[in-house]
Design goal:
The protein is α/β, with parallel strands linked by helices. 37% of the residues lie in helices and 16% in strands. It folds into three domains: 58 residues, no CATH class; 80 residues; 177 residues, 3-Layer(aba) Sandwich (Rossmann fold). The strands form three sheets. A six-stranded mixed beta sheet has the order 7-6-5-8-9-10, with helices on both faces. The radius of gyration is 36 Å and the shape is elongated.
Length: 424
């Protein structure tokens, strides 16, 4: 297959700004298409990260001559025939070619332009405007990341780090300081020698010329002493450490529909953290009447189920924080998904444990998945027991976020709301 690479600076005499606008216009279409795919594609498709995206076309805007004839109608203020919002059929084009995608007389047309996104491009389009809220740098005992920082210049170094401008400045300063003869003075004397002179003046000119050439050779234009290389020191960088604790309700009230939505949400969260952050650990907890820390495979694919005791998952999260994550060194985040159902006798314990956790974490995201059946699952109308409890706690802890997901098409909207970049 032949590949044509356009290396022209300004192909087809189009303005560079117009080309940049076209790329930006296509980029917005790709972003919309990719984010819509999150709600419609399967989890495996999202993980593969390769998708074909159709855009409206690759043609750039151009000016065309209006070939229509006759009177033209405009909607003007005060008219009695048209109001704002009325539309009028476009006159039939008398000549010219059909546009891209327009069917021809024989029923054929031109396909739209397609982008094929790689896995990295796919994830960049999804997560470019998101971040972990309230993320701060905390003191660490183990610093493994270093970053090069400029540290002046040195006389020796790698040729790739040669600073040409600085070297030439040093050369110029040295030549000026040593009063190195200039070429124009030598050329001037050589021109004078070509003319008739007295023997005494000619001898003086020849002597001066020899001295200028001698001094010019003695003072080179560029000396090894002038050469400078950019110098870098490797400086340890404070790494922002964070841990995300994912708590998923797998009780009997969570049907396949609810569990599918919960898995999609946590899968997005998993990809987001791995893509955006270098030093983030993820802890997976599943709970019904009891809680269990599991690995990624079991978290997304286990079929275990049972009753509902929400406090069991929160207690295990608190235990993991106490034993493995010092609050002075780690940014701690918790994301919890549930259908809002909980055993009545467990609500007091849930309230107690959550109020202990909230002061030591950066952010708590609670996602409640609405039942597929329009009839509310719980006995208190559309507001669940757990949501009612969490809203009371939120009055004391503003970094507790509560959102509802009412269908597959709402997953991305909720995810973006929870992890939108903070505006300064």
């Amino acid at each position: 297959m032949s590949v044509i690479i356009d290396r022209r600076l300004n192909p087809r005499d189009k303005a560079i700004k117009n080309r940049q606008k076209f790329i930006q216009r296509s980029r917005e279409q790709i972003k919309k298409y990719v984010r819509d795919a999150i709600d419609n594609d399967s989890i495996s498709d999202i993980e593969k990260g390769k998708i074909r995206v159709k855009v409206k076309g690759i043609n750039e805007p151009t000016f065309q001559k209006d070939r229509t004839t006759g009177d033209k109608k405009y909607v003007l203020p005060g008219n009695e025939e048209y109001v704002v919002g009325d539309s009028e059929k476009k006159p039939q084009q008398q000549s010219g070619k059909k546009g891209s995608g327009d069917p021809s007389d024989d029923g054929q047309g031109e396909d739209g332009f397609e982008f094929v996104l790689s896995s990295d491009e796919y994830l960049d389009f999804i997560f470019e405007d998101l971040e972990l809220p309230h993320l701060i740098k905390k003191q660490m005992k183990d610093m493994t990341k270093v970053k090069p920082h400029r540290a002046g210049f040195t006389n020796q170094g790698n040729p790739s780090q040669l600073d040409i401008i600085r070297s030439l400045k040093n050369s110029l300063g040295r030549r000026i300081g040593l009063n190195r003869p200039k070429n124009n003075r030598i050329e001037e004397i050589e021109q004078l020698l070509k003319k008739e002179h007295t023997p005494a003046s000619r001898t003086a000119l020849e002597k001066e010329l020899m001295e200028l050439k001698r001094r010019q050779k003695a003072i080179p234009w560029l000396d090894p002493f002038d050469v400078r290389y950019r110098n870098f020191n490797m400086v340890p960088q404070p790494i922002t450490q964070a841990v995300m604790i994912c708590i998923m309700d797998i009780s009997g009230s969570m049907g396949e529909y609810e569990k599918n939505i919960a898995k999609r949400f946590f899968f997005l969260l998993h990809m987001f953290l791995n893509r955006k952050y270098e030093k983030v650990q993820i802890v997976f907890i599943r709970h019904h009447t009891s809680a269990k820390e599991v690995d990624e495979e079991e978290f997304f694919h286990s079929k275990e189920t049972g009753g509902t005791i929400v406090s069991s998952g929160l207690k295990l999260a608190k235990e993991i924080i106490d034993t493995r994550y010092n609050v002075n060194d780690w940014n701690i985040y918790v994301a919890q998904s549930s259908d809002g159902d909980n055993t009545m006798s467990d609500n007091i314990e849930t309230d107690k444990v959550l109020r202990i956790i909230m002061p030591i974490i950066q952010y708590f995201a609670y996602v409640e998945i609405m039942n597929e059946d329009p009839t509310p699952y719980n006995y208190f109308g559309k507001i669940s027991l757990l949501s009612t409890l969490y809203k009371k706690i939120k009055k004391d802890f503003t970094h507790l976020a509560i959102c509802n997901i009412d269908g597959l098409g709402n997953i991305w909207t909720v995810f973006k709301k929870l992890f939108q970049k903070e505006t300064s």
